Amino acid sequence: MVIGYDAKRAYKNNSGLGNYSRMVIGGVAKEVDCVLFTPSLKGRHEHYFDGMPKVATRVPQGLWSLAPSLWRTLAVGRNAEREHVQLYHGLSHELPYFLPKGMKCVVTMHDLIVRRYPDFFKPVDRLIHRWKQRHACRVADVVVAISEQTKRDLVEMMHVPEEKIKVVYQSCDPIFWCRGVVESWSRGEGSGYSLPSRYIICVGTVEERKNQATAVRALAQLPEEVALVIVGRPRGSYPQEVRRVAKELGMEQRVVFLEDAKFADFPMLYHNAVASVYMSVFEGFGIPVLESMCCDTPVVTSNVSSMPEAGGDAALYADPMDADAVAAHLRRLLEDPAFRQGQIEKGRTQRLRFAPEKVSQDMLALYRSLLDD
């Protein structure tokens, strides 16, 4: 079996779609040959696949190197045919044009946020995303949804036939599953961060949809010795809104922004937190919920979209705009050690549903079923 992948995100993106791409490819490449098609090897993870003998990478050559984005859209099909690819998987909402007739193809749809919340996107980006999604869902043999929520959205908002959709949950980066480094997480060795002694962590791009302002409002109701550490890159004007809320509530000294935290340090940052809070208004899956559970950090999250799927009975839920309810959950985790430990134990069970090995085997089973048809 030879699987071709759109690997642009795997090399370039540090979170979200990049983590998903690396997780899928890395797991599948333990068993079958994989050919990665990427417009460039340059990026945050240019050496990630080094040492994986079943992985080969292809980049545009000749005149196509002058137009790598067009190569990714128009020429990858012919390249895939030359590489004897049997199945091509677009890992992030899109598939190239002109894939060879008879070559099976799969696309992963993470969410339909561009359709649900169009105002979060620039008009031209909105148009491009919708166009790519429509093409990919039309030509794919199977559309992989990363949650039941995404599957419902595909049926309701894009009218994709339900029988064409397969839910294959995602995992989080392998770094969160390395149990042998828990001691170093606890000590925070060499972290280089000046962290408060007792803090709640909130991980995610600082943007309106992630809704960090609710976490700040909840913090105002908690003991003064507790801080909030917001880990994520700023996007647009929303970070200024979060800072305004913190100032208005007198929380400026208790809210710490880590905009450039190293991804390798995320497990330590989670593990040393008293709790994690993730009050996004909508997610295709909600990776920080799983990351929290993998780091033995109790999590409070939104009761909407896919978060209850990710958290199961291991998370505590509230309306994403209800700071009082969020504060009540956090207060209980802060004040009741036995309850907090119980949530940690539930998280250890819940996270097994999304273990990388399980996700890889589910994806391989899907590929084999397609190729056996």
Describe this structure in words.
The chain is α/β, with parallel strands linked by helices and 373 residues long. The protein has 2 domains: 2-171 and 355-371, Glycogen Phosphorylase B (Rossmann fold, 3-Layer(aba) Sandwich); 175-353, 3-Layer(aba) Sandwich (Rossmann fold). Helix content is 40%, strand content 15%. The chain has 15 helices and 13 strands. It has helices at 8-12, 17-28, 68-82, 113-116, 123-139, 148-158, 182-187, 212-219, 238-248, 266-271, 287-294, 307-311, 323-335, 337-350, 356-371, and strands at residues 2-6, 33-37, 55-58, 87-90, 104-109, 142-145, 165-167, 199-203, 227-231, 255-258, 275-278, 299-302, 315-318. The strands form 2 sheets. A 7-stranded parallel sheet has the order 3-2-1-4-5-6-7, sandwiched between helices. It has a 6-stranded parallel sheet with strand order 10-9-8-11-12-13, sandwiched between helices. Strand 9, helix 9 (238-248) and strand 10 form a beta-alpha-beta unit. The longest helix has 17 residues, at 123-139.
What is the structure about, briefly put?
This protein is an alpha/beta fold.
CATH superfamily of the largest domain: Glycogen Phosphorylase B
Low-confidence stretches: none
Percent of residues in beta strands? 15-25%
Q: Tally of extended strands? A: 13
Q: Could you spell the SSE succession in H and E letters?
A: EHHEEHEEHHEHEHEHEHEHEHEHEHHH
What oligomeric state is this? Answer: single chain
Query: How many domain units?
Result: 2
For the record, the CATH architecture of the largest domain stands as: 3-Layer(aba) Sandwich
CATH C-level class of the largest domain:
Alpha Beta
End-to-end Cα distance: 14 Å
CATH topology of the largest domain: the name is Rossmann fold
User: Into which percent range does the helicity of residues fall?
Assistant: 40-55%
Please tell me the overall pLDDT. Answer: 93
Q: Record the strand order, biggest sheet.
A: 3-2-1-4-5-6-7
Radius of gyration: 21 Å
Q: What class would the helix/strand composition place it in?
A: alpha/beta
Q: Which term fits the overall shape? A: globular
